[in-house]
Amino acid sequence: MATTPDELTIAYREGDQELVRELDKVVLSKGAWTTILFRYQEWNTSKQAFGPEKYSIRRYQKRNGQYQQKSRFNISSKDQARKIMDALGRWVEEETST
Q1: Contacts with 48 (C-beta within 8 Å, 6 or more apart), sequence order
Q2: Which terminus of the chain is more exposed, N or C, with fewer CB under 10 A?
Q3: pLDDT tens digits, residue range 35-72?
Q4: What is the four-CA torsion angle of 91, 92, 94, 98, rounded to 10 degrees?
């Protein structure tokens, strides 16, 4: 179990096979509740290759010195990521112009 946000990862292996490859991460907030945005790929067994990039926002709670995942939201495509970015960008602009 991770004791710092830097130790938290989405990477996953079973034996010698890497099933989830973490490409990048951004720690959005730190503290008792930590939020991290991950960029990753999943192994596609039928194609014997990693699939397209995906993204996940995960929330962790620190209890007894260890972080435990409490929630997650997976962004399954670049198209969905762009729509989220567009909406957030528009909302932030609206807020700053009022």
Answers
A1: none
A2: C
A3: 999 999 999 999 999 999 999 999 999 999 999 999 99
A4: 140
| pLDDT single digits (tens) 74-90 | 998 999 999 999 999 99
CB 9 within 8 A of CB 75: no
Predicted local distance difference test score (pLDDT) of residue 98: 63
Residue boundaries of the structural domains of the chain: 5-97
3-class DSSP assignment, residue 11: coil
Residue whose token pair is 């112009």: 97
pLDDT at 96: 75
Q: Which long-range contacts (CB under 8 A, 24 or more apart) does 11-19 make?
A: 11/40, 17/43, 18/43, 19/43
> pTM (2 decimals)?
0.89
What string of DSSP letters covers 12-74?
Answer: EEETTEEEEEEEEEEEEE-SSEEEEEEEEEEEETTTTEE---EEEEEEEEEETTEEEEEEEEE
